[in-house]
Amino acid sequence: MLAGLAATAGFAASGIAPARGATPIEVTDIAGRSVTLRAPARKIILGEGRLMYGFSTLVPRAPFERIVGWAEDMVLYDPATWRKLKAGFPQAERIRRFSSAVNADFSTEQAIALDPDLVLFPLSAYQRIEATGTIGKLARAGIPTAIVDFREQASHTTAPSIEVLGRLLGLENEARAFNDFYLRETRRVSSRVWNLPPARRTTVFMERAAGIDPNNCCMTFGNANLGVMLQDAGGINWGAARFPGLGGTVNPEAIFTDDPEVIIGTGADWSESTPGSRGVPFGYEATPERVQAALRALAERPGWPQLKAVRNKRFYSIYHQFYTSPAHLVAMQVFAKWLYPASFADLDPDATWRAYHERFSPIPLSGVFWAQLA
Question: How far is 219 from 233, CA to CA, in rounded Å?
C-alpha cells in the first residue's frame, strides 16, 4: 500500500546527518521511504519536468527559484505550457535539463555535479531508478531523494504528495492551503455520487491520447489515473474491466460492438513532438475553432459516426496533461458535469479552473482545456 506522510526516525534514505543543533525534517514519501533533510530544500532537481505542475502550486510566484535542474519532458511534450512559463520566468531557460527519469536515462552524474539538496522523482519512475541504482548513487553522494505521485493513483496520492512537498520545502502552510482547495473541490463531486447505484451510472469509453497516431486506435485508461477520476465522478469506466493498471490498447470493433453512452478522449497539441498527430490541441494556446475541427475529425473516423455517443453529441475531449497534474480536480468536475448535468447544474468547472489559476498557477489562464462536439 502506498504510504502517506508520516514522521519517521533515521537517516537511511538521505545518507546524511543533520547539522548539529538543527531539527531535521523527517517524512515518509509516497513510496513509503524515509526521507530526512537538514533544512528545507533550496536547491532541487525535478526528475520529471512535469512534476512542475504539482511543485508550482506551492510556489506559483517563483516556480523556478529553487530549481537547479529538471527533466525536459515538459519542454518536449507540453511546449505551449513551457512557452508560457519561460515568458513569465525567463531564468527557466538557463536551468540545466536532463532526460526524464521515467525513461530510465536520468543522468546521475550530472545531478551530483549540481549539488542539490533534494531530487524529486515521480512514482512512475520509482522501480526503474531503483533497478538502475540511481537512488543508491545519489544517497552515497549525500543527496536525498523523495518520491511523489500526481499520476498513477492520483486521487489517493495527490494530497499526501503535496504535504510531502510542503514539509520538504518548509512550505507547510502553502501545502495546507492547496490541499484544502483540492479536497473541497473534489468532494463537491465525490460526495454526491458516492451512493449512486450502478443502474444509474453512465458507461464511458475513454480514448487516451486520441489522435496522437492517426493510423492506430485506440488506447484507453484502465483502473488508474484519469480512469479512476472518471469513476470518482460517478462514471463506469469501460476500460477498467479490461485493464487493471494504467490501461492498454483495444480494437475499435470492441467499442463499436458495445456502443458506450459517452466517449471522452484526451488531447493536446503534439504537433511539435509527434508530427502528423491529429490530437485535439488543448492547452494555453488553443482556440475553440481548432479544437472543434480536431474533435470533428475524430468523430468522423470510419465507423465512429454510427456510435450513439457521436449521434447524441455525447462525444467529448479534455486536456491530456490533466493526467499528471493536481489540476485533475477540474477534470473530475468536468466529467461529473458531462455525465450528470441535472445533478451538477450548480457546479461550475470554469470558475474552479479560474480560481486554481488565481491562487496556485504560475501561468495566467488562457486557451481551451475541454470541449463537447458541437
Answer: 21
Residue partners of 198: CB distance under 8 A and separation at least 6: 236
What does the alpha-carbon distance between residue 319 and residue 208 come to, in Å, rounded to a whole number?
Answer: 10
Which residue, among 347, 324, 343, 321, has the nearest Cα to 334 in the 3D structure?
347
Comparing CA positions, the residue from 235, 216, 351, 331 lying closest to residue 277 is 216
Identify the pLDDT of residue 120: 98
Summarised one tens digit per residue, pLDDT across range 157-166 is 999 999 999 9
Distances (CA, A) of 310 to 196, 264, 307, 368: 25, 11, 5, 21
b/e map 15-26, b = 16+ CB within 10 Å = bbebeeeeeebb
288's grid cell? 475553440
CB 326, CB 357: distance < 8 Å? no
DSSP string computed for 273-310? TSTT------BTT--HHHHHHHHHHHHTSTTGGGSHHH
Q: Residue 69 pLDDT > 50, yes or no?
A: yes
The percentage of the chain sitting over the pLDDT mark of 90, rounded to a whole number, equals: 84
pLDDT reported for residue 100: 87
CA 141 to chain CA centroid, nearest Å: 30
Question: For 68-136, what is the HEC assignment?
Answer: EEEECHHHHHCHHHHHHHHHHCHHHHHCEEECCHHHCCCCHHHHHHCCCCEEEEEHHHHHHHHHCCHHH
